[in-house]
């Protein structure tokens, strides 16, 4: 475990806590894409199939349980909580994510470390995580304005994958046979998707104006 | 034994 990866896990955890805080405190999920949250829940459920079989460390096991539980809690809130579900922008959150799920699954069948159930689902979760933010970015573009908490949520989420890429570079140079091509390439694509958001976020911070995404 | 490829990251 190196500092970059630990920082990446922490920014990832913070992004989820920001979202839970926003939903719990404001009892509203306006501006949040349910589809992105469902994709993240699917990412964690398919990635941590080895939760009970491969014990790596207490830290890993605890974090996996926290990620699965929190992502399911967010989806449950947005679908079932009587107050929260009313504020869901149903007609703005129209990204057809089922095609993305299908494409990632087909890709995982073709490109994986080993053709086993666990490895195919692991690769699937890696590809899916790279594009899971798309419905959220589309929703932000549609709704135009980005409220602070949602903006910070996306910012921390982007920082997490960016830190993971630094972690992979670090491990590549410090460990002999370290290669994670699938995760690296997919992580680069994922961080690239955030790049334009980061740009507008930086502009809004620099010019001290409300974050506006070009429609 | 073959190098047990475990995913040690999250």
Written overview of the protein:
- The complex is a heterodimer of chains A (215) and B (10).
- Chain A has helices spanning 3-26, 34-47, 58-80, 82-86, 97-110, 117-131, 134-143, 148-174, 181-206.
- Chain A has 215 residues and is an all-alpha fold.
- Chain A is globular and about 45 Å long.
- The mean pLDDT of chain A is 94.
- With 10 residues, chain B is low in regular secondary structure.
- Helices cover 0% and strands 0% of the residues of chain B.
- The termini of chain B are far apart.
- The model of chain B has no long low-confidence stretch (mean pLDDT 66).
- The interface between A and B is medium-sized, with 20 and 7 residues.
- Chain A: The chain crosses the membrane at residues 58-78, 121-141, 153-173, 179-202.
- Chain A: This is ER lumen protein-retaining receptor.
Core attributes:
heterodimer, A: 215 residues, mainly alpha, B: 10 residues, little secondary structure, 0% helix, 0% strand, rod-shaped
Give the termini separation of chain A: 41 Å
User: What is the string of SSEs of chain A from the N terminus onward?
Assistant: HHHHHHHHH
Summed over residues and divided by their number, the pLDDT of chain A gives a mean of: 94
Ranges of chain B with pLDDT <50 over ≥5 residues? Answer: none
Give the fraction of residues assigned to helices of chain B: under 10%
* Overall 3D form of chain B: rod-shaped
Give the tally of β-strands of chain A: 0
Gyration radius of chain B (Cα, Å) is 8 Å
What's the tally of helices of chain B?
0
- Largest two-chain interface: A-B, 20 and 7 residues
Assembly of the depicted chains: heterodimer
What Rg of chain A, in angstroms, do the CA atoms define? 17 Å
Shape of chain A: globular
How much helical structure, as a percent, in the residues of chain A?
over 70%
Keywords (chain A): Endoplasmic reticulum, ER-Golgi transport, Membrane, Protein transport, Receptor, Transmembrane, Transmembrane helix, Transport
Subcellular location (chain A): Endoplasmic reticulum membrane
Membrane topology (chain A): Multi-pass membrane protein
Main location (chain A): endoplasmic reticulum
């Amino acid at each position: 475990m190196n500092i970059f990866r630990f920082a990446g896990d922490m920014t990832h955890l913070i992004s989820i806590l920001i979202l839970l805080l926003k939903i719990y405190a404001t009892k509203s999920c306006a501006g949040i894409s349910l589809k992105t949250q469902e994709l993240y829940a699917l990412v964690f459920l398919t990635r941590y199939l080895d939760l009970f079989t491969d014990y790596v460390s207490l830290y890993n096991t605890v974090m996996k349980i926290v990620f699965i539980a929190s992502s399911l809690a967010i989806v449950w809130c947005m679908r079932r909580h009587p107050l929260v579900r009313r504020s869901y922008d149903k007609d703005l959150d129209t990204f057809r994510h089922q095609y993305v799920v299908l494409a990632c699954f087909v890709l995982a069948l073709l490109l994986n470390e080993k053709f086993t159930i666990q490895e195919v689902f692991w690769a699937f979760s890696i590809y899916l995580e790279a594009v899971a933010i798309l419905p959220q970015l589309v929703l932000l573009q549609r709704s135009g304005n980005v409220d602070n908490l949602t903006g910070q949520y996306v910012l921390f989420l982007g920082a997490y994958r960016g830190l993971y890429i630094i972690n992979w570079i670090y491990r590549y140079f410090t460990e002999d046979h370290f290669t994670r091509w699938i995760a690296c390439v997919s992580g680069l694509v994922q961080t690239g998707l955030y790049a334009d958001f980061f740009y507008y976020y930086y502009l809004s911070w620099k010019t001290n104006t409300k974050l506006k995404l070009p429609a | 034994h073959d190098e047990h490829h475990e995913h040690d990251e999250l």
